[in-house]
Amino acid sequence: MYNREITAYLEKHDYKTFAPKVVLFDMDGVLYDSMPNHATAWEQAMKGYGIRMSAREAYATEGMRGVDTIRTLVKQQQNKDIDEAEAQRMYDEKARVFGLLPTAPVMPGVTELMRKIRQKGLQIGIVTGSAQHTLIKRMAHDFKEFVNENCIVTAYDVQQGKPAPEPYLMGLQKAGNLQPWQGIVVENAPMGVRAGVSANIFTIAVNSGPLPDASLTAEGANLLFKKMTDLKEAWDLLAANFDLS
């Protein structure tokens, strides 16, 4: 099972083997059930700047650097360009509002999945577009049993955020200068899936939000699951196709 999808991936990129050494997780909507809070914070914070941002738009742009999202929205809705410093001030307000909301829980199934991954001898990395220090600090604490802090990529580590491939290529680099066929990406958002696929990494989409499945498969996801617990249950069957030699 899953050998067809892996074979298609190898043929597309002319790779000889699929030998994962690291699984790179997105954060929001994958590790934490945090996207409802983000959607609320985006809508409330941007309203103060005369910017409209619906919950659907928050999900659709999730994974991008916050400053990139803001600069795009300002250009689209107000027809003006703002520099990164101004966008950062607006993003700081979004982060402030987010911090007032209830703490998002760890996504069901994530801890068990990470344990299965480590038992196979694979590393675990995290690749997020977030620049919110409190979230990054919490992430390093919550998953310290499985994740080396040196394998966490945030908005501070890249020049071009998702959907560019740079964040996931950086994830491979931090995991030991690995090649794309030595990694797996786990994503929940179209922009993140596009980033993983653009980096030529086998990309698993988990549709934990309200967007249609097609919004993820259209970006090239190699596999699609409805929730993290489904991926956890499928992991052993998937891993049976890995070259772990």
TrEMBL record:
This is HAD hydrolase, family IA, variant 3. The keyword Nucleus does not apply. The keyword Hydrolase applies. Keywords: Hydrolase. It comes from the Bacteria. GO terms for molecular function: sugar-phosphatase activity. It comes from Hoylesella oralis ATCC 33269. Coiled coil: none annotated.
